[in-house]
Amino acid sequence: MARITASVYTSHIPAVGAAFDLGRTKEDYWKPVFAGYDFDKQWMKTHKPDVIFLVYNDHATAFSLQMIPTFAIMTGPEFNPADEGYGARPVPKVIGDPELASYIASAVIQQDFDLTMVNEIDVDHGLTVPLSCVFGEVKEWPAKIIPFAVNVVQHPVPSGARCLALGRAIGKAIMSYPEDINVHIWGTGGMSHQLQGPRAGLINKEWDNAFLDRLIDDPKGLSQMPNIDYVREAGSEGIELVMWLIARGAMADVVAGGPKPKVAHRFYHVPASNTAVGHLILENAG
Ligand code: DHB
Ligand code: FE
User: Fold this and answer.
1) For each of the chain's 286 residues, which pLDDT tens digit applies?
2) How many C-beta neighbours within 10 Å does residue 92 have?
3) 186 has which bridge partners?
């Protein structure tokens, strides 16, 4: 059977992608940001996934006000990096897993979550920047990737409780897949940031760190926090953090009860661009 062995959480800041692509990772400003991901390179050698279920949001790149799916699972065979106005990032294309993605779509829809299925889409910085941070410069991504997009751009966006419950349904679906594969689930976006209006530039270190604590220790309690609290405390784009609850919901303790996951790595740094960088790796016990 398929196993979910770990979840990975990280910000997905476009300027981090640009610094990476332009070879500026050793500059004073960027060095401490990228240092937060050094651990990952070694850890991935011993915890290599076959498939990554990667929760992210599209930033009005592929979707627009014409079409706004709340939850979209990418069931296609491959996805190219999107052109977000400066040309596509020079990173490998994403190889999907249509078989597993369709299986998850079917098992999750049977659990009463309505998903949009997408076979063709270009993936933006929300997906490609986390891959660059975690894997560094590679010729191809070392795993198949199932992109899963959440609407956190245009209100109304889904609640934390719905995201946690959806993660649980995704976890159950993956664990019932009859192939012996190692799956990671990633949650991306955040942490605190606001890109618009009078509070542009807002960062809230205390709140971010409390969020990390609660994500690890009390995901159910954290999932009860209303969306307005994210916006008030972590800024209008801080709402991206609800996506982390999808990844957390797929961990064994939430899916089936039992011990909390082990914190393999925790990192926090401010600022990078306009945003607080947060990064966590949680391993399932056993
Ligand atoms: C920034 C951060 C984001 O998460 C994003 O999607 C766009 C911009 C920023 O820090 O500038
Ligand atoms: Fe974003």
Assistant:
1) 999 999 999 999 999 999 999 999 999 999 999 999 999 999 999 999 999 999 999 999 999 999 999 999 999 999 999 999 999 999 999 999 999 999 999 999 999 999 999 999 999 999 999 999 999 999 999 999 999 999 999 999 999 999 999 999 999 999 999 999 999 999 999 999 999 999 999 999 999 999 999 999 999 999 999 999 999 999 999 999 999 999 999 999 999 998 999 999 999 999 999 999 999 999 998 7
2) 18
3) 8, 54
Is residue 184 flagged as an active site residue? no
CA-nearest residue, atom 1 of ligand 1: 13
Q: Which residues line ligand 1 (CB under 6 A)?
A: 12-15, 59, 189, 193, 195, 237, 273-275
From residue 272, alpha-carbon distances to 68, 105, 197, 263 in Å are: 28, 35, 19, 23
Among this protein's residues, is 193 annotated catalytic? yes
Q: Which of 164, 158, 178, 121 is nearest to 251 (CA)?
A: 164
* CATH H-level superfamily of 3-283: LigB-like (3.40.830.10)
Residue type, 208: D
CB 193 within 8 A of CB 202: yes
Between CA 128 and CA 123 the distance in angstroms is 7
Yes or no: say if 285 and 269 are a contact pair by the CB < 8 Å rule.
Answer: no
Active-site hit among 12, 59, 184, 193? 193
Residue nearest to atom 5 of ligand 1 (CA): 13
Atom 2 of ligand 1, residue of closest alpha carbon: 13
